[in-house]
């Protein structure tokens, strides 16, 4: 009878050891794949994702094609409505802060002083008679800022159109596109963005 009890105990020990090894193997496989899971920490525990320090950035660009005579006047700052490039830059910055009012389903972003960097740059292309517009938005928030960057470029371009249309309406806004988007669930970088140099912007 004792040998039966001893045999049963040995069987239980072996079964328990096998179970522990099996669980350990599952845990190792789980932990090796948990790095790709946003709601699991390194110990395999379920956690809530921390979004308080996520930095989100987006860059966009477009181009405004002008007739040669209009471009020359703009280049020499001789248009009757004043400094077109400076006004368009301010228009782009203001528009980015009003994106949620312009795009119905776009989330409003809290524009505290330390939370959002916005920049709009305009450069003249003498060979193509056009104005190249780029914008960049960076913030710490819970939603991306690509719509703010695209809106900044769009309104800056429309401001140029408005200030030049008295001379000619043969003005075209071209090639509005997103260049870079980082900080969200998926990042995006257009190939041409590698050659796009965006200077540091103003703190709003």
Automatic annotation (TrEMBL):
Query: Which superkingdom, per the lineage?
Result: Eukaryota
Q: Which GO terms describe its molecular function?
A: cyclic pyranopterin monophosphate synthase activity; GTP 3',8'-cyclase activity
Q: Which PANTHER family match?
A: MOLYBDENUM COFACTOR BIOSYNTHESIS PROTEIN 1 (PTHR22960:SF0), MOLYBDOPTERIN COFACTOR SYNTHESIS PROTEIN A (PTHR22960)
State the Pfam families in the record: MoaC
EC number from the UniProt entry: 4.6.1.17
Organism source for this protein? Varroa destructor
Q: Name one GO biological process term.
A: Mo-molybdopterin cofactor biosynthetic process
Q: What is this protein called?
A: cyclic pyranopterin monophosphate synthase
The residue ranges of the Molybdopterin cofactor biosynthesis C (MoaC) domain are: 49-184
Enzyme class (EC, first level):
lyase
Provide the reaction this enzyme catalyses.
(8S)-3',8-cyclo-7,8-dihydroguanosine 5'-triphosphate = cyclic pyranopterin phosphate + diphosphate
- Its pathway? Cofactor biosynthesis; molybdopterin biosynthesis
Q: Which NCBIfam families match?
A: moaC, PRK09364.1
Q: Which keywords belong to this entry? A: Lyase, Molybdenum cofactor biosynthesis
